[in-house]
Design a protein that fits this description.
It contains 10 helices and 10 strands. By secondary structure, it is an alpha/beta fold. The chain folds into 2 domains: 2-102, Winged helix-like DNA-binding domain superfamily/Winged helix DNA-binding domain (Arc Repressor Mutant, subunit A, Orthogonal Bundle); 112-305, D-Maltodextrin-Binding Protein, domain 2 (3-Layer(aba) Sandwich), CATH 3.40.190. Helix 6 links the parallel strand 3 (106-113) and strand 4 (135-142). Helix 2 packs across helix 3 and helix 6 (121-132) crosses helix 10 (292-305). The longest helix is centred in the first third of the chain and has 28 residues, at 75-102. It is rod-shaped, with a radius of gyration of 32 Å. It comes from Hymenobacter gummosus. Belongs to the LysR transcriptional regulatory family. Pfam families: HTH_1, LysR_substrate.
Length: 311
């Protein structure tokens, strides 16, 4: 116990000392040769001597004994060489970690997303991001756009990807990609890509769709799309989760319209027909967020958005 207290006192005192003095002493303690050490450090022997003397005066004890033929460490010098070597290694590690934090290369990122970006966009983005910032811990939450703004404003999320821009002025949204919509059909459905003309021919079908109310931009866009074909779709089932919709369509409970990202779904028993309509995905975060981690993710999303194969 007494030894631990002594070492703690040494460490506390070292923290208040000039680190240059300590580093110069450790280099000299390793070489035990003033001329060679001064030459490696790029200073004069007299300057090196002054650094060591200042350290000894501050400590109130001799660290080195010097004669005409040799330099050797005192017992106090041997003790401090071991302790300061360990202490500075820890300090250097802390400094390296602080630089990583400042650069946004470590930390935690809480990312929300709509389900449709999970099959293709999100894996591509996070693969590239993890390659650049492998020490950032990612937490993903699938959440609808209706809940996203409150979660961002209350710092439960850092940023996310949704199919409508934020309305709150404290948030900012940037379009990252646009993709086609597709008609989703059970594999046994009589409509085929070669015979399909438009959604106008499907007015008698039962549709499985998300809410088409006024509260969401994506729902409004779907409603306006159907209005353009002159009808309101029959809906016996409503769901905001694309994976659920795919399973219900595969079970023969109806047809649907979804973003093309879902065409890569592993759910069996489905067919996808491209439609002449598109949906935009937005990256939304707090306006002027100073987080370097958020900035790195946004930069990676911008790089992916500029890729020719995006979407």
């Amino acid at each position: 116990m007494h030894g631990n207290a002594t070492f703690a006192a040494i460490n506390a005192e070292a923290a208040s000392m000039n680190l240059h003095h300590i580093r110069y002493f450790l280099r000299l303690a390793d070489k035990l040769h003033y001329w060679q050490t001064a030459d490696e450090l790029g200073i004069t022997q007299s300057s090196l001597s002054r650094h060591v003397q200042a350290l000894e005066q501050e400590l109130g004890c001799r660290l080195l004994q010097r004669s005409q033929r040799r330099v050797r460490l005192t017992e106090a010098g041997q003790l401090l060489q071991a302790e300061w070597t360990r202490l500075l290694a820890e300090l250097d590690a802390v400094h390296r970690y602080a630089r990583l934090v400042s650069a946004g290369e470590v930390g935690r990122l809480r990312l929300g997303h709509v389900g449709s970006v999970a099959p293709q966009w999100l894996p591509r983005l996070l693969t590239a991001f993890a390659a650049r910032c492998p020490q950032v811990q990612l937490e993903l939450l699938e959440v609808g756009a209706a809940q996203s703004e409150q979660l961002l404003l209350t710092y439960q999320l850092d940023l996310g990807f949704w199919r409508e821009p934020a309305q709150n002025p404290a948030l900012e949204s940037t379009a990252v990609f646009s993709e086609p919509l597709v008609l989703v059909l059970p594999a046994a459905h009589p409509v085929r890509a070669g015979t399909f003309t438009s959604l106008a021919a499907l007015r008698e079908e039962r549709f499985i769709l998300p809410s088409l109310g006024e509260e969401g931009a994506y729902g409004r866009a779907l409603r306006q799309m159907f209005e353009g074909y002159g009808y309101e779709p029959q809906r016996t089932i409503t769901s905001d989760f694309g994976a659920t919709i795919l399973s219900l369509v595969a079970a023969g409970l109806g047809v649907s319209v979804l973003p093309a990202s879902y065409a890569g779904s592993p759910v069996a028993g489905l067919r996808f027909i491209p439609l002449p309509h598109h949906s935009t995905v937005y990256l939304t975060c707090r306006r002027n967020d100073p987080s370097a981690v958020v900035g790195n993710l946004r930069a990676e999303a911008a790089r992916l958005a500029a890729s020719p194969a995006v979407g």
